Amino acid sequence: MLLRGASPAKVLVVSTSPDTLNHNAPIRSALRDGFAEVLGAASVRACPLELAGEAVAGFRPGLVVALGSVAVDSAPLRELAQGVRRAGARLAVWLHDDPYEFDYAAKAEDLADHLFTNDRWALPHYRHPSVSHLPLAACRRTHDRPVRPMAGRALDLFFCGAAFPNRIALLERAQASLAGRRVEIRGAGWPAGLPFAENTRMNPAAMADRASESRLVLAVGRDLDIANRRFRLPASTPGPRVFEAALAGAPQLCFAAGLEILDYFEEGREILLFDDVPEIAAAIDRSHREPAAFEAMAGRARARALDAHTYAHRARTILAVMAA
């Protein structure tokens, strides 16, 4: 058990599911970078779940942060927790798929010394005695880009993400108003009827490059539950792409599914909100009429992300919570 007020000398970041099934493995590397900014590179390691037992035994961390989804029943999370305790370390589990997989959360509650949930509304529904809300973030190494002049941006509108039903419906309704504009949608599962959509996955750096080349980046959360029947929780906290695009210097048009986003970015100064399809084309038009205003907005959002929403900030929060 760590002494009150102490920081762990070493931190190991692992995933909660095997990399063969883990589409979010880059977040593990981003969190490792965040801890390295705070503690120094020699004090931090990261590895896939498959190698976690060996890493715990060899590296002897004081804190292990297990990051991801616990939906994979075959993932050896109990073995991970047992190895952490044998090493005299503490285990924090940071779940990043709340509330969409909340029904699986009990598995993490049984194992963790402390739980972090990416979604604020999920927080009061946990029964674990030690739980915190911690949004995902952006990685300085991967996502940080200078703010480009609007005149040189190749795209009017960019979106990168999986084709969840609510996103498909939104862009299908917007399709006519976006005709003739430079629009690019990337991800997986997009229907052939959307001419500007391409089923191509982008790595995080490529996504940041494209966001920095766009007059507007669209931010639309997902609306597809995997295991959320117990409480049917609506999502509250914005996903990581909002922080990533901000750090990439992109003006953002964010769908107003809730108002928690205003705790992270100021509407009108750092982001724009919308709740209806005609506002997308109107925002593109405005970006052409007022390029200086959109450059300034992107600059303020990037500064806000650098000041409060990188994985170094999240690492400091984890260390403070685990030392308390």
Largest sheet: 6 strands, parallel
Number of strands: 12
Q: Could you give the order of strands across the largest sheet?
A: 2-1-3-4-5-6
Per the CATH scheme, the topology name of the largest domain is Rossmann fold
CATH superfamily of the largest domain: Glycogen Phosphorylase B
Mean pLDDT: 94
Protein name: Spore protein YkvP/CgeB glycosyl transferase-like domain-containing protein
Organism: Methylobacterium platani JCM 14648
Pfam families: Glyco_trans_1_2
InterPro entries: YkvP/CgeB_Glyco_trans-like
Write the layout of secondary structure elements.
Blueprint: E1 11-15, H1 25-39, E2 44-47, H2 52-59, E3 63-68, H3 77-86, E4 90-95, H4 105-109, E5 114-117, E6 131-133, H5 140-143, E7 157-160, H6 165-174, E8 183-186, E9 197-198, H7 204-212, E10 217-219, H8 240-247, E11 252-255, E12 272-274, H9 278-289, H10 291-308, H11 311-323
Parallel strand pairs: 1-2, 1-3, 3-4, 4-5, 5-6, 7-8, 8-9, 10-11, 11-12
Helix pairs in contact: 1-11, 2-3, 8-10
